Amino acid sequence: MRRRSMLLAAGAAALSTQLGGRASAAAGSGPVLDHDTPVDLDGSEYVDLSNQVGVLAPLTTGTIVVTFRTTSHNEAMTLFSASDPTAPSSNVTLNLSGGALQFSVREKGSVLINVMTRTRYDDGLRHTVAVTVNASGTELHAGGRVVYATARQAFFGSVSRLTALALGRNTDSDHPGGEWFCTGTVERAAVWDRVLTGTELVAQCPRPDLADLGRISTILNSDTPATWVLTGDSITHGALHTNGWRSYPEHWTERVRWELGKPKNRDFVIDSGVSGATSAELVARFGERVTAFSPQVVSIMIGTIATSGLGPETYRANLVSLVRSVRALPGSPVPVLQAPNPVDPAKWPGRVGLARYAQVMGEVAVQQDAVFVDHYKDWLDGNGGQVPLSLLGDGLHPNERGHHRVVLKMIKDLRIFDAGSRVCSLHVP
Fold first, then answer.
1. Is the alpha carbon torsion for 208, 259, 292, 373 positive or negative?
2. Domains of the chain by residue range
3. What secondary structure, in 3-state letters, does 320-343 show?
4. At the topology level of CATH, where does 4-209 sit?
5. Which 3-state string (H, E, C) describes 63-122?
6. Does residue 246 have a pLDDT over 90?
7. What superfamily in CATH does domain 214-425 come from?
8. Does the pLDDT value for residue 64 go beyond 60?
9. Which helix (H) or strand (E) holds 229?
10. Pairing of strands 145-150, 164-167
11. Cis geometry, peptide bond prior to residue 263 (ω within 30 degrees of 0)
12. Predicted confidence band at 350 (pLDDT cuts at 50, 70, 90)?
């Protein structure tokens, strides 16, 4: 097991030097603790930083930041934990629970705060997460963006006797050997004695998230009902070629309104896709297709028939208009652009230019700082660069398998994938 002897056998002082951990008591400036040497954890290893816990123990306000990447899906994985190993359930822990980001503070079994996102971060990608705590409450962040907020607060100073500090595990009197071990790489863990600003949190991220992705995560993590509008052409409409199976908007509805649990069942998902629609028609009928529903999120999947009389630059202008129109609605809803899927060129030679339209959509997303779900690339990458004909009904429209592929990409990119869910694990024969 790589690095095991260094991680477990070395003394705490040696670990601080060998693994890059450092402490500083300078208030209001840099972190008071910063462990910035990446460590690979195999589910039984951890990094002991207990010699630095005294710097953190008095803090009643501050920020914890961890950059990590998971290599497996464990039910519980500790990223950062300070605890009293002589007492039951006395700890401050930032961890993943079923992939969801969780922050908890407990004092001898009494839960002072325990908050968790619905969005998930055990996808094998690099994430930077954070928790900030002050008198106003507690916020969870991902990629530098707020994804969850509550007025409740508790921090290191809320637990009376913190003597253990570790990356990769939590300890208490019931688990002296540790629990909730992490499998993956922890690149960095740092603590400040103040709440970092939004700009500072973004600066801590090697790859910050789009602000709109953070807003979508906040909507998914909130208990306030939200309205999702999915609009577009016949693919979003889900007409005919699903062969009686669910379309991708229907799968999305099941994932959000049922599988995410109450009170997300009070969200509403509206499919306003119309067979034959073009980006020009969607611009012209934006009021009835989008505005009428007072949405918080608007997904736009359009372009499959864009080559019928519309050039790429007209398509670009229409997409820009649609994104700006979404943002201009009351409450500034979040736009999501979803690229059309590739089609069978043998059956649809008139659509051979569709790749350019998918590329244009991606360019508009970058220009407008919009979330982009690239089904065109996903389908080709998943089939060796070839159009996956098994996902198509008539060579153009996704069949029941294609619609499931579309929603899986959407679910993964918007961070609510769970291999154990019926939607995510559905097998379409």
1. positive
2. 4-209, 214-425
3. HHHHHHHHHCCCCCEEEEECCCCC
4. Jelly Rolls (2.60.120)
5. EEEEEEEECCCCCEEEEEEEECCCCCCCEEEEEEECCEEEEEEEECCEEEEEEEEEEECC
6. yes
7. SGNH hydrolase (3.40.50.1110)
8. yes
9. strand 227-232
10. unpaired
11. yes
12. confident
Alpha-carbon distance values, 217 to 63, 120, 142, 209 (Å): 20, 10, 9, 11
Name 168's bridge partners.
Answer: none
Per-residue CA distances from 50 to 80, 164, 256 (Å) = 12, 5, 41
Residue 112, C-beta contacts closer than 8 angstroms, at least 6 positions apart: 105, 106, 154, 158
Question: 172 near 85, Cβ under 8 Å?
Answer: yes
Give the whole-angstrom CA distance, residue 304 versus residue 312: 12
Task: Tell whether pTM > 0.90.
Answer: yes
Mean pLDDT along residues 96-104: 98
Residue 16: Cβ within 10 Å count: 21
Q: How far apart are CA 327 and CA 334, in angstroms?
A: 7
**Identity (one letter) of the amino acid at 63?**
T
Q: Which helix (H) or strand (E) holds 318?
A: helix 312-328
